[in-house]
Amino acid sequence: AQALLRSRAIGRIAPLTVGASQISRDALNREVAVLGSTADLLEVRHMSMGIGKFLPAGDIHESASVCVLGNQIKRELFGNEQAVGAWVRLGERRFRVIGVLAPQGESMGMRTDELVIVPVASAHQLFNTSGLFRVLIEANNRDAIEQVKRDAEEILFQRHNGEKDVTVITQDAVVATFDRILTALTMAVGGIAAISLAVAGVLIMNVMLIAVAQRVKEIGLLKALGAPGKEIRGLFFAEAVLLSGVGCVAGLALGYAGSFVIGRIYPTLPVSPPWWAVLAAVFTAL
Fold it and tell me: How much is the average pLDDT of 93-108?
């Protein structure tokens, strides 16, 4: 992991060791995910501290008995009491709490609020391992990402005696994967919406067909009074447009209300409909 810093395109690295252990304080205990890393993890992952400080900088091989708690772990073990400075037990080893992370939900595929972070050397001793689960790499800038990827692969290839046994994944690749999944979901939802629109269109046509069939006498009366066929057709078209228009407005109101409710329940989820979808809904209905 440290050898990666030979690349000038790499700004920071954060080695990771992951394991599970039981954390206890007095009579309280529970299973937690334990993350072994270094002080640079805070900057690489853009996490923020709620109180106290993060892992101390220094020798990566130093196994200090300190830990940083996720926000939920702190609440479960300490409640409203002060956690910083207290001792907790992980497995057979005691650790002093030096900080508590700010609430931040899910990151790196796990809930950071339920993590306990210790120095990577301490995690190796705790789990009796010597390898790393992953190395997080921060490029000096966005333009250097491809260079970082090539350098990381080459350095690890040399360090592992010519064996290509690592995979380098960029965040762009992860985002692209999610984009493909979301695109497929969008197309599926769009297909369902198209079927709904087709059914609604047939329903409106049937309603208007029945309306015409039931008004044969009225049409005859209008013709007898001298109304041209064009005017009578216009009357029925106006009624159809009015019916579609009212349904369109009601549908938009319901859609915006649903978006508002979902946005309140999940504030981080972007749920506002794009302008083109709103226009397409109006034009399709009409």
Answer: 84
